[in-house]
Amino acid sequence: MTPKNNIVIGIIIGLVIIASYNVDANPIEFVEGLPNLAIVVEEMLLVEPKYVPTAIWAMFETIQMAFIGTIIGFAIALPLSMLAARNLNSKYVYAPVRALLAAIRTFPSILWAILFVIMVGLGPFAGVLAIIMYTVGFVAKLQYEAIETIDSDPMDAVISIGVSKWQLIRYVVIPESASHLLSQLLYMFDYNIRQTSILGLVGAGGIGFYIINYIKFFEYGKAAVFMLVVLITVLIIDWISVKIRDKYIIKSQHGMEVTTK
Amino acid sequence: MKQTPISKKPSSSLISTKKIIQMNNIWTSYDSKNFVLEGINLSIDRGTNYAIIGQSGSGKSTLLKLMNGMMIPSKGTIKIDYVSPNMNDKKFKNMMHTIGYIPQNLGLVKNITVLENTLLGALPRLTKTQSLLKRFPEHEIQEAKRILNLVGLSGKENRKAYMLSGGEKRRVAIARALMQKPSILLADEIVSELDYVTAHEIMDLIADAQKRMNLTAIMVHHDMQLALEYANRVAVIKEGQKILEIGVEGDSIVDFQTGDMTYDDIMEMYADDAQK
User: Fold this and answer.
1) Which of A159, A161, A172 has its CB closest to that of B121?
2) What is the ipTM, given to two decimal places?
3) B250-259, pLDDT tens digit by residue?
4) CATH fold of the domain at B1-96+223-276
């Protein structure tokens, strides 16, 4: 460790302390608050199993919302990302598209949800719209970054044949980035399930609606049932995406056989 | 292994005096400061096997990219079959359909099959609807299979490109280029990194295709020996200049031009090399 590094680390620690002071982040309060957490946990342990069917149903609604949002969002994002990729377009095309995507990304999904609740009223549809918007902004960025990293060699070889841009996208860009696109789709679905779970906070449907209401009325035991269902679902989806990844993505990225049971 | 043809070079009867490539005082630069090519003059007869050799960084790949319009020179004029290359020009774009180009890393799409890679060469012949539906007409598929058979890949049509060996990948790249029904074949170091036998198999394949289809092959090589074996003419590029061009018939050199440099310049260059 050089003296220069020590100074840098010192400065960073200093900044953390100053920032903590500015935002009233007080470790003592945290320690004093710990018994409250114990109360919550204790109440949560009083799980009320009769709410399990409701929780599963609500989770099912959440999954459907996330599914529609992910698929539609992904479908909208794909052509936009083709326009935003620097290796496919001139500056006059990609710069405005990128600006648009950045603008969409500025809002977190919960803000989109509020906006759409105002527009279309309470309920899952507002949530679906919010997920679509968030997915478009986020996944289009991932997509154009993936497109920009594809090997320029097949592109050059096929461009030199004198094909149309559409053919280039259809026959080279999509097959070359397919494994990345699939992996992003899985990631986004996984992520959107978690997100959709909290959109209920603003009345945009899904399991979050129950969680927030039970927490508001200090019914932690009931809230715990719903949270547990979210946890289990996320674990299952995670496990499924690992399986899909092993089967389709890793193999094509590394050009090797993966043994699947 | 295939039988080796008696002469690997295109016979002089196949070569016409028509110039398929003409370059006049070509300068190119990637950053408008440093020039990669410095005043290249070059003319290639139709039907020739033309080899370009030089060390890495000499500008030989750039030279190849000028011949299919993938690069535009900063200065100088190029005519490809008497047409100036310009990708936005309809006439030249149609010409690109029949210029096969195999870049240094071959440019295969690795997640698709051998057959699909070969069919890429037929893309310009598809209608809009066919390319939208990804549907190649039956006769194109048969043609692709015939070519794959020709390059020795029959039975491997449905392998994914990433599963192939180095030699097989090169055969696919050749098949894709032949699928274009080319009049010119450009290949950038297609046999470097291959062992002696495989390199010769690949070169024989190109020589064979050249005779069948009467095409002009312009190939960048690393290895002078291989160039002399297969080419009618060999150009040597060094630091962006053509320092030497020779015509070869059989085993003998029939024409010797010192390119744009004087004899003294060349001697000086070799003296510099010797010191390094």
Assistant:
1) A161
2) 0.83
3) 777 777 776 5
4) Rossmann fold (3.40.50)
